Amino acid sequence: MALPPQDERTLPAVVLQDLDKQPLEQALAGVQGLIDQHGHLIVVCSQAVSPETGRRLHTIRSLLETDRIALFRPALPPLGLAVLARQLRQLASCDLGPGVLASAGRLLTHYIHAGALLGSVARLDRVHVGLRQHAKSWVPGQHFAVLAHPEPQLVKLAPGITLAGPEFGTSMLVAKGQLQSDWVTASLVPQWNAQGLRETVLPAESAAWWGTGKLIEFAAFLPDLSVLYQLVTSVRQGSCHWCGIDVIGDRCVFCSAGPPPVLENQNQLPAGRGS
């Protein structure tokens, strides 16, 4: 899902539509054209997409024999993932290298609070559902507030009930499914002290991710580009020992190389001996 630009600097996204349904040659040519045009490609993909799509992405990357495609599939609900993709599009306008930009995805996930109000948790398998909560979900009219990220929470909705929210200023994005309720906008937004509220369409994968179409999905996030940039540039950067690209963290997001092994010096002599 490609969200509308957050500001005038937000770069557009390329949606790889029906990637698993295209002939392989057509999908290869399309991705190769994007690499030729932009140099590197960061693919942000939901864990709720079909297994065929996931396999097709890995097949394309393998057949192109390139280390310029970063596949990123964080454990975020679809709306939270769409928010993260837009944040990366915001940062793409800054002076960040492709490795640092792709690595920033792992960092920024920690600052996204994503959840949903559900009409049933009977088929929810992304967050632990207790036996009592599972039984109550079959009672008509029951609503459940669920936070999937960063710390899973699940509570039956009742007066005064809320979810633990961010301890920093955020904006809120809301996408309504087939559930009718004003709890998110009337209760959760002021409880979380969200500084802004916008609505968008429900992502295509949301019903599959949450196990029901009776939902209202929400995500709280950092909207300011300057704050995002400061977060990313404050983290120590290093060069991948295999492909040489600058990254954040120990594992390269493009070639997947981890940190080099620490080898003991086999020729080192015991102290006080040798010359």
Automatic annotation (TrEMBL):
Q: What is this protein called?
A: Uncharacterized protein
> What species does this protein belong to?
Streptomyces guryensis
Q: What is the lineage of its organism?
A: Bacteria, Bacillati, Actinomycetota, Actinomycetes, Kitasatosporales
